[in-house]
């Protein structure tokens, strides 16, 4: 205590903050700024959700084609096609929101570039192929949920759960 003023270890008797304390503060600010900038950096490549988006679109198209080729499967495959279309829409919206630079690529992927694949030879083959694709999508979404940002985790895990349920219903 100097006079009536209490002196903290970070101040001298004149009320001036020592240079070492200032340098520590500046160093901390620089370190935090660097970490924040690194966390905000974007890749120039595709968004991590583009692969599940392509799978959802592919599954929706396959389910729609199989339902058209085998009318007896329409009641069970139409909900799968609708759900996978909804998954694709949600994934595309998230990519557009988070990565506006990828919006053109995401929207261009909706345009058919190849003729549709021929439907499987039988109804059983169609269901089996779709069930396998749904299982692959479930596993990929589950793995992605472990590494993606927390705000995307809910979307990805709900897609994984939906694919698991759809694959089970088709079994």
SSE layout and pairing:
Layout: H1 19-40, H2 50-69, H3 74-98, H4 103-108, H5 123-147, H6 150-170
What does this entry look like structurally?
- The protein has two domains: 1-41; 50-170.
- It has helices spanning 19-40, 50-69, 74-98, 103-108, 123-147, 150-170.
- With 171 residues, the protein is an all-alpha fold.
- It starts with 18 loop residues before the first helix and ends with a helix.
User: pLDDT average, as an integer?
Assistant: 83
Tell me, briefly, the overall form: elongated
Helix content: 55-70%
Low-confidence blocks of residues: none
Task: Give the SSE order as H and E letters.
Answer: HHHHHH
Task: Please outline what is shown here.
This protein has six helices and no strands.
What are the key terms here?
0% strand; 2 domains; mainly alpha; 171 residues
